[in-house]
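Below is a filled-in request sheet from our internal design queue. Each sheet records the structural input a requester submitted and the sequence that came back. We keep these sheets so that new team members can see what a complete request looks like end to end.

REQUESTER: design group, bay 2
PRIORITY: normal
MODE: inverse folding
CHAIN LENGTH: 175
BACKBONE (tokenized):
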């Protein structure tokens, strides 16, 4: 944590890495092309194979989910100061005082660790930095670059201790 000249703590703010929007664009292009194909066939009085409307519905659902995920990533922030941690992602806001946090679960994954922070009344989840690699070349990054630091601060400031391994994962709780 940083401090100002008077020794007071400055609020730290963390934001996740933003994934490229290429996949979102490809999904919406697929929606437009499939919709256009469906429209051309329907208006030319040709038979529309059932797979075209099914594909259109699947693509529009997928494009919407991808867009929502990208929008949430762009609105996600974790803020920490002396008294609390705050998590916002555009759809939810969780504000927890350090002593309200009762458990932190960590699950390793292919693209960073999944960290779940629990209190009695609420919870939030975030991912540490993960890299998408293809033939040893980094093609993308996701999660919080400072995710390990966020995890460390959550555990230290809330007074948690490592309790037990759960398969590949582990968790911290009050002693």
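RETURNED SEQUENCE:
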């Amino acid at each position: 944590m940083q401090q100002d000249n008077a020794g007071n703590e400055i609020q730290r703010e963390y934001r996740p890495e933003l994934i490229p929007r290429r996949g979102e664009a490809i999904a919406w292009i697929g929606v437009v092309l499939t919709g256009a194909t469906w429209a051309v066939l329907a208006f030319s009085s040709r038979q529309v194979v059932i797979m075209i409307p099914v594909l259109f519905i699947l693509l529009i659902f997928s494009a919407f989910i991808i867009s929502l995920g990208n929008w949430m990533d762009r609105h996600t922030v974790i803020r920490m100061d002396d008294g609390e941690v705050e998590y916002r992602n555009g759809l939810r806001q969780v504000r927890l005082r350090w002593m309200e946090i009762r458990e932190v679960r960590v699950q390793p994954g292919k693209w960073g660790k999944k960290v779940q922070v629990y209190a009695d009344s609420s919870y939030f989840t975030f991912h540490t930095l993960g890299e998408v690699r293809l033939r040893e070349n980094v093609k993308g990054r996701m999660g919080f670059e400072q995710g390990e630091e966020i995890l460390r601060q959550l555990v230290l400031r809330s007074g948690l201790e490592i309790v037990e391994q759960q398969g590949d994962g582990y968790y911290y709780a009050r002693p």
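SHEET NOTES:
- The chain has three helices and eleven strands.
- Residues 22-73 form one domain.
FILED BY: M.R.
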